[in-house]
UniProtKB/TrEMBL annotation:
Pfam families linked to this entry: Choline_transpo
UniProt keyword Glycoprotein, yes or no: yes
Presence of the UniProt keyword Membrane in the record: yes
Stated family: Belongs to the CTL (choline transporter-like) family.
The protein, known as: Choline transporter-like protein
GO cellular component, one term: plasma membrane
Taxonomic lineage: Eukaryota, Metazoa, Chordata, Craniata, Vertebrata
UniProt keyword annotations, A-Z: Antiport, Cell membrane, Glycoprotein, Membrane, Mitochondrion, Mitochondrion outer membrane, Phosphoprotein, Transmembrane, Transmembrane helix, Transport
GO molecular function: antiporter activity
Primary site of residence: membrane
Species: Oncorhynchus tshawytscha (Chinook salmon)
Length: 725
């Protein structure tokens, strides 16, 4: 058994043997991971079926328009309620019931109106005045002709009173105010007639308004964010276009001025972060004399309006500390990695030469962006239609004890309301739901939608990685460049990837998607257990989340290198992942010295682009620059477009810089393969260029100065190395 393990270990550690027939990416290859390819196609067809089912059942109007007691949409175009966009509560004080927080519905009639009432009025007094009653009818149901006040109230056709109200998130809420002494008023009056002969304090309206506000708070924030997007979407697009142009400019300049641009990026990142520290310090000092600026973040609590935090000194102090830590870490890394940075810059120069032969690779991220946009759009639309595909559910609402309370009813079928045994009962719209087979499995369809979103998005990313890897590998293994390269390396590699390796791409992306969906479930469980979990449960969840985060990073690393090996040799995913992993293990020091330091430099480039665009977006949308005061849109939360531009800029920069990162990774693996297959002799010369061999020599010198080691027997001294030109 021990002998078997030793032989297996030797098989792993032994370098690749010389193969005179190997000339780079193999063109005569077969399909790989066919079972996973078939499974992926079946799941995609199922995903299309789920989308069609959701589109036939869903109704996005449910999240756009308020809904009255009959389940009709207020303000919907093309309906009788098109001119009535606001929702009016017959008796807002009934919203003070604790059941509101449980069932998310006020036990009072709600109807769509053209505008909110702007005066005090009771039905009893309005009934005696023709003009007043005509105004009052705007807030009543139909069928008032010939009825007395008592009959109207008992039938629930009109509210007993009207109070001055203002529209808020398309709903009419009492226009509450407060006098200097703290007394609550409504319409400048501290008391009002409730229409039943009682004089009540205005503060009685507060509880109802508060509960109704709690019910719609999340929706209110979402609607404000949606409105901000409608006001600023074109400016957001301009910001993203600027980020794309800057990214493209950096990539093109890296192609011709790699060494200079890397140092420019390093200096600019330090300067941008330094300016951030300076700006935050100025804001911190300027708030010193402002009243209320010394409130702590803990005392302030969570606020939906994030601009409130910018008036607190502690917020800017936190920004200063975070930016200072980032600045110090970057400077220390640059100092300790100075020698290796020089080697990494040389490797980036070599990658620039490779991209010079495959210039179409610079524009490939646009194709990836287009595919990802389709995936994201399909997922988002399907999610909206699935979440709005429930049916309106009506329930019996009442104030007194009743056997029928909270039971499901149907206004068009159920007996007339109020019921004889429940004189104050009403059949009102409660929520959206359903009891059909489709509605029972709706949560499963939502889960399937999320899982396929992850799988398709990872598949698109994997396709881009394998396509670029195949193109750059054809550059490395070309004996005479560019004569021995395909005429269109990107298209040739893309064709091979889709024709032969769809299954391998689906296999790798499936593994990654399973881990990502587990992480989502862990976050969901953690959110549901907030406030009820003990310390042991909290510790266990933290450990699980940390472990799966590390596992996701590891799988991404393995997948990336496995796709490179698939692009070169055309083997299945598992074999390629094993070969890539052991090849990297045999060159572990070079991975740390060359590959990871290069990734760090490219990350600084992304950070610089995000910082530049983010600073511009902050000054523009916040209106802090006078030149932009009249140009910037009026927003509820100006952090919404800023955050969108920053995140979008990072994704765009990541997409463009991923071309360089993939080029470096591919050249590095080919470089390691070249070292193992060949020895630099006349019979077995290296495929690497003279400049890449110089990088190897410098890297070897750095390793020997830091940790003297003996050269491997298959790697001869530099003076005996022969390079293929």
């Amino acid at each position: 058994m021990l002998q078997g393990l030793l032989s297996h270990y030797r098989g792993i550690c032994e370098p690749k043997k010389y193969d005179p027939t190997f000339k780079g990416p193999i063109y005569n290859r077969g399909c790989t991971d066919i079972v996973c390819c078939i499974l992926f196609i079946i799941c995609i067809l199922g995903y299309v079926a789920v989308g069609i089912l959701a589109w036939s059942q869903g109704d996005p109007r449910k999240v756009i328009y308020p809904t009255d007691s009959r389940g009709q949409f207020c303000g919907q175009a093309g309906t009788p309620l098109e001119t009535k966009p606001l929702l009016f509560y017959f008796n807002i004080m009934k919203c003070a019931s604790p059941m509101v927080l449980l069932e998310f519905q006020c036990p009072t009639t709600q109807m769509c109106v053209e505008k909110c009432p702007d005066k005090f009025m009771t039905l009893l007094k309005a009934y005696t005045n023709k003009e007043d009653f005509k105004y009052y009818k705007n807030f009543c149901k139909e069928g008032l002709e010939g009825l007395t006040v008592t009959q109207i109230l008992s039938s629930g056709l009109c509210p007993a009173m009207l109070t001055p109200s203002k529209p808020f998130t398309r709903r009419c809420f009492p226009a509450l105010g407060q006098k200097k002494g703290g007394e609550i008023t409504v319409g400048n009056n501290s008391k009002f007639d409730d229409g039943e002969g009682n004089i009540r304090d205005a503060k009685d309206l507060v509880a109802g308004v508060k509960n109704a506000t709690v019910v719609i708070e999340a929706r209110q924030v979402a609607m404000k964010i949606f409105e901000d997007y409608t006001q600023s979407w074109y400016w957001i697009l301009i910001g993203l276009v600027i980020a794309m142009l800057i990214s493209l400019l950096f990539i093109v300049l890296l192609r011709f001025l790699a060494g200079i641009m890397v140092w420019v990026m390093i200096v600019m990142v330090i300067l941008v972060i330094g300016y951030g520290i300076f700006h935050c310090s100025m804001e911190y000092v300027s708030l010193k004399s402002e009243a209320g600026s010394n409130v702590t973040l803990k005392d302030l609590g969570f606020q939906t309006d994030f601009s409130v935090y910018l008036h607190i000194r502690q917020t800017w102090l936190a920004f200063i500390i975070i930016l200072a830590i980032v600045e110090v870490v970057i400077i220390l890394l640059l100092i300790f990695l100075r020698n290796r940075i020089l080697i990494a810059i040389a490797l980036i120069k070599e990658a620039s030469r490779a991209i010079g032969y495959v210039m179409s690779a610079l524009f490939y991220p646009l194709f990836t962006f287009a595919l990802l946009s389709i995936v994201i759009a399909y997922w988002a639309v399907t999610a909206v239609f699935l979440s709005t595909s429930n049916q309106p559910i009506y329930k019996v609402f009442n104030e007194t004890a009743c056997d029928h309370s909270r039971k499901i009813c149907e206004p068009a079928v159920s007996p007339a309301f109020p019921l004889a045994e429940c004189p104050d009962s009403k059949c009102l719209f409660a929520f959206y739901g359903g009891e059909t087979v489709y509605h029972k499995y709706l949560i499963g369809l939502q889960f399937y939608n999320v899982f396929l979103f992850f799988w398709c998005a990872n598949f698109v990313t994997a396709l881009g990685q394998m396509t670029l890897a195949g193109a750059f590998a054809s550059y490395y293994w070309a004996l005479v460049k560019p004569d021995d390269m395909p005429a269109f390396p990107i298209f040739s590699s893309l064709g091979r990837s889709l024709r032969y390796h769809t299954g391998s791409l689906a296999f790798g992306s499936l593994i990654l998607s399973i881990i990502q969906i587990i992480r989502v479930l862990l976050e969901y469980i953690d959110h549901k257990l907030q406030g009820t979990q003990n310390k042991c449960t909290k510790f266990l969840l933290c450990c699980l989340k940390c472990c799966f985060w590390c596992l996701e990073k590891f799988i991404k690393f393995i997948n990336r290198n496995a796709y490179i090996m698939v692009a070169i040799y055309g083997k299945n995913f598992c074999t390629s992942a094993k070969d890539a992993f052991f090849l990297l293990m045999r060159n572990m020091i070079r991975v740390a010295v060359l590959d990871k330091v290069t990734d760090f430099l490219l990350f600084l480039g992304k950070l610089l682009i995000v910082g530049l665009v983010g600073i511009f977006a902050f000054f523009f949308f916040s209106g802090r620059v006078k030149a932009f005061e009249n140009t910037a849109p009026n927003l509820h939360y100006y952090w919404v477009p800023i955050l969108t531009v920053v995140v979008g800029s990072y994704l765009i920069a990541h997409g463009f810089f991923s071309v360089y990162a993939m080029c470096v990774d591919t050249l590095f693996l080919c470089f390691c393969e070249d070292l193992e297959r060949n020895d630099g002799s006349l019979a077995r010369p290296y495929y690497m260029s003279a400049s890449l061999h110089d990088i190897l020599s410098e890297n070897k010198a750095v390793e020997e100065t830091e940790e003297p080691t003996q050269s491997s027997p298959h790697q001869p001294d530099d003076q005996h190395v022969q390079l293929k030109q």
